[in-house]
Design brief:
about 30% helix; 6-stranded antiparallel sheet; about 25% strand; rod-shaped; alpha+beta; Jelly Rolls
């Protein structure tokens, strides 16, 4: 049997020494060192650290008297404030604009008051006069257009009447001397004892401009279908306007009846005249009637219509 070499035994010895040192180091107790000071009297200080929320003893909620946009905040949280100190302010630009507007209105009112106290200027009077003249001219133009329209309507009626007259005169039935139906009947009223009727007859050629001092005459017919009639009332309604200034004296007559004169205030005023006609002074178809008119100043005649109320035997 061979012996272990010396080198091997040397390694084993070193390992044993290391293990022994490690065991000794682990099991060795440290040496306790005491520090001592002399005892004496003094204050004891102790510090405590905590987290939390700081709440004020009293809270006051502040607001503005009016709503608006905050333009500035003059303090921050934790600042000390004093009585009368401005903490925040609103945007007052709109209030400043209203103030300027009110001041401007006050100046305008003061200027108007000064004008009233000083009296109207000649320029203002001239402007007002021109406005009045323009308004009067517009009124006259409107009245003239009305007269023109009514004259056109009357001309259409005249043409229709002429056509009707031609048809009557050319009719093969020569036994009838008056139309069977009046084309101008407006309504019929009747009772058991005596029926009555009201008809209207336009005086066709009476419309238009009539120069002052110039007499004019217009012929018109009265058609009624009944043969035995009794006239209860008759009058002519005349409408128009007088463009001249002052009073316009208008004279009216029918056939041989005496003339009646009516005073009409001019300056572009419209007028309406009801001229009574005596029943015995009227002629019935085929006889004609004559309407006479004379005015002291220029006259625009719109229309002239005869209204006839009569009774007849049923």
């Amino acid at each position: 049997m061979k012996k272990a070499p010396k080198k091997l035994w040397f390694v084993i010895l070193i390992v044993i020494i290391i293990v022994a040192i490690s065991v000794w180091a682990m099991t060795r107790k440290p040496k306790i060192v005491y520090t001592t000071v002399p005892a004496e009297a003094g204050p004891l200080i102790q510090t405590v650290s905590e987290t939390g929320t700081v709440k004020p003893i009293k809270e006051i909620f502040l607001n503005f008297l009016t709503a608006g946009k905050i333009s500035a905040v003059n303090v921050k949280v934790g600042d000390q404030v004093s009585v009368g100190q401005a903490l925040a302010s609103l945007d007052d630009s709109s209030l400043n604009l209203k103030k300027l507007e009110i001041e401007a209105n006050i100046k305008i009112a003061e200027a108007n008051l000064s004008k009233i106290n000083a009296g109207a200027s000649q320029e203002a009077i001239n402007i007002s006069r021109r406005s009045l003249e323009q308004a009067q001219a517009s009124q006259l133009a409107a009245s003239y257009d009305q007269v023109k329209a009514e004259k056109t309507s009357l001309e259409n009626i005249r043409q229709a009447k002429k056509t009707y007259d031609d048809l009557v005169s050319n009719s093969s039935d020569t036994q009838t001397t008056r139309p069977s139906v009046s084309p101008y009947c407006s309504f019929v009223t009747s009772n058991v004892v005596q029926p009555a009727k009201t008809t209207k007859f336009p005086i066709n050629s009476s419309g238009g401009l009539i120069p002052g001092g110039a007499a004019t005459s217009s012929a018109f017919y009265i058609y009624v279908p009944e043969t035995s009639i009794s006239v209860k009332s008759a009058f002519i309604e005349i409408k128009g306007f007088s463009p001249s200034t002052g009073t316009n004296n208008i004279s009216i007559s029918v056939n041989d009846q005496s003339t009646s004169t009516y005073a009409v205030l001019s300056s572009g005023n419209s007028f309406r005249i009801l001229h009574k006609v005596l029943p015995d002074n009227l002629n019935f178809y085929p006889l004609s009637n004559t309407f006479n008119l004379n005015s002291s100043a220029n006259l625009n005649l719109s229309s002239a219509v005869l209204s006839l109320t009569y009774s007849f035997a049923p």
